[in-house]
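Extended Data, panel c. Modelled sequence:
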Amino acid sequence: MIKEKFQKTSWYRLLQVFFVSLFLLVLSAVIGIFITYKPERYLDNSKSSIICISGKYKDNHYPLDKNSFYIYSWDDEFSESEKIDARKLCAYDKLGITYSSEYSDPQIENYRLNKVYGINNSWSEAFGYSILYVLGVVIGFGLFKRIFFFIAFGENIFTGFND
C-alpha cells in the first residue's frame, strides 16, 4: 500500500532517473574497461635488436634494452639522435658517443633494426574484467535496493529474491 503511493510521487521518479543515469555511467565504464584491456601489439624492446650490416662489426647483434635504446614512438623507429648512436655503435662498437667529436658519424645506414612485437592483454581479460564489473554493479544495485526498501517501507531484506 505504502509502496504503491510512493511510486506515484516525484521522489520515485527522481530515483528512477538516478538509476537510469547510474546505469548509463556503468555502461560507459564497462565499455572503457573493455577498450583498456583489449589486446594490443607493442614493440618489445627487450627482444628487439640492432644488427650491423656493414663495416668491421658486421653481423654483430646489439639488444636494444641492454644498450640503452628504447623505441616509444608510434612509428616504431629511432629518433635522429638514436639513429646516429646506432650508426656509431656499428662503426666503432661503442655506446654513448653521440656528442663525442672523437668519433664521426658514418652517415651511411650501417645497421638494420630487428623489431620483435608482442601482444599485451587478451580478449579473455577484456571480457573477464567487464563481466566482473557488471556482476559487482548488479550485486551493489541489488543491495542498495533492498536496503532502501528496508529503510523506507520496513520490508524484510531477505524476501523477494525471486523477483
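The two ends are 18 Å apart (CA to CA). This feature is highlighted in the accompanying rendering.
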